[in-house]
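Hello again, I could really use a second opinion on something today. I've been staring at a protein lately and its backbone has me curious. Can you walk me through what the tokens say about the fold? Take your time with it, there's no hurry, and the full record follows here:
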Amino acid sequence: MKKRYFLFGFLLTVVFIFLSESKAQQILDTANVTTVDNLFDNNTGVTATPGTILSGPFYAEYPATTPVSTENDGWWTNTIGFNGSHRRSSRVGTASPAGAHAIFAFDVPVTDYYVVYHHMVNSANSSTRSYVTFRRFGEGAVVDSFIYSERSNNLGDGRGSWYPLGIVEVFASDSALSVEIGCDSTGTNVLRVDAVRILRSIQSGPDIEFGNRRSDETTIDPGTGDTLYHASFFENRAPFQFPQTTFKWNGHSDFVMPVYNLGSSDLTISGFSTMTNRFSVLTPTPIVIQPGGKQDITVRFSPVGEEVTIDTLLILSNDALEPEAKLPVVGEGINYNFILNAS
């Protein structure tokens, strides 16, 4: 057993390094992206030190609903995050972290539809029930609200990613859009916040967007100067790894993925294609998505044996720049009885 899982872990590392080079056909223009990062300080979480509350023109923090002195009354700075620097975490002690939240505000010079992303490095104890709200300047009502698991950012290679929270129409103004991320969990999971980013399109016609995008990261061999690893939000969609799935009794795992249309005319998805028969899409086509709209599609992994399958899902559409948009996918088939007896 130990040998089997060591081999599988090594194989997945190789797989994800390979898939990091699988680029989206369309390279995003940095001029169409606006990023707001969290503030930070030197309070890195010493137990006896009270938490801090940071606030600025584009970022503000708020404590838990029922704070506990020196335990739950503020936030910590973690020395990892967007650009490898920092993120913020709500303090968790004897009280619930519920109610802790942070708000990111965006100045928007151009009225348009925007996909909103949240960045997170890989985290095993981040909140699985974070609430998210979108608000527009001058409007009393919430534009959109939903629950989000911060572990959706975790990738199979141990890295984090940019996760698409949703799409929203934003009207040009200062502080045009506010994105609130808060902790809805009553357990011990920690609310963590990192950079938030909004993406628009200037493409004429439909423009497809979907899936997590890679964190910006480059690793250089200090001895040779060779690039060992490179990935970018602007170039790479992150691979989706299905959970381990039994191949017995027609076992399968499903993944529901929203597809957005950032363009100026209807996006028509005409079909899907993969290189193997292990992956399929259950959602019937054609699918028509209006500008600023989204449609969930269901992707299924159906292993036929004990195997690791690496594939690429192609989404076929009338997007002129990405007529065959790519999503790398990975799945492992397992023998159910074998896993049950492993302990």
Observations:
- The longest strand covers residues 173-183.
- The domain at 30-201 is CATH 2.60.120.260 (Jelly Rolls).
